[in-house]
What does this fold into?
Amino acid sequence: MVKWLINMQNKNLINTIYMNYKLVELLGTGGMNSEVYLGKYVGNDKDIPDKYKNAAIKIITKTSDTTSDQWNKILDEAVTNARLSKKSDVNIVKLFNYDNNDSDVVKTVMEYMDGESLKIVLRDRSCFSLVETLYFFEKILIGIQYMHNQDRSIIHRDLKPENILTSSDLLEAKISDFGVCTVIEPNGKNNFLTNETSFFGTVPYVTPDAFNCTFSEGKRIPIITKQFDFHSLGIIFYEMLIGDKPFEISDENDSSTIKLFADYDITPMKYINPTITNDVENVFLRLTASKDNDKHLRYSCVEEIIDDVKRIQNKYTKNDKEDDTLKPYYKRTYQGKLLLELKENFTLWKSICKNKWVLGCVVVFGLVTFLSIIFLLLGNLW
It folds into this structure.
């Protein structure tokens, strides 16, 4: 009965116009009684860019179960996202407009990303090549650079593949979900968007620094620094290259596992993937340095990370042989090679996985080839 009522409510909102966008499709539902719709622009601004003619409309309705802290968090997230949306091309999912004139409803109009989250892309691909990893990672870094370099720095605190959204052509990657951000005032004081008596963040991506805190009037007050985001970036970097997290965690809700980085050594990535070079490994190690003896190796700012990534990119490009056949279609740049990898590897593999008949043929062909080799070897032995 409840499901039927929700479906009826969703149908009633289709074709409704919110802030110059007509709701045409329900994209999904989430926590806090939220619904996200695809909206088509129906306003009078003829100069609006084509990429903004579609938008994601998020509608959150307050219920009797919604606490004041939860509702304030929703309002603060909208304000933070709006503040980060003033500049274009910074790899942040932009918020175009929001409305909370109705005290029980918040409506936000956000940039629509027509691809999947990085989590889904990684699930389909298992892992990325080095060139793909560096390409996506640089885009994420540009978004974090913009957040950290505000007059009042914004620390995301919940960076993870699920909160990185991509475009359908996989050429864009943007940061989303600013619900647990912390604003660092010019005087260094933390201004939290959440009630810090609870633990926030996603366990596999949280730095051991999260346990560094003070207590005031019985409340836990963590000491938030840029390392919170750097550590999360390190785990994402590792996942993109290896296809798994550095530690096998049986319970991702067990916050005690956060201390693993401070207590144990990580198996070097090059032992798992021999193509990983020392300079790539060092990026990960500096991002996640958590032992007391290693903390001096940490990056002090996001610009240092970007410099290292660009240096590796340039090294990769310099060592790559020039291919004249590509010039009519792709610039001989790092991005050009990424386009080739994405189109030849990702698209092909994804289409094979979706087509069960083709996948079956590939498996049968591989099996026949394997058996043929075995028979040939046995024939030579006889």
About this structure: Confidence is low (pLDDT under 50) at residues 1-8, 321-341. The radius of gyration is 24 Å.
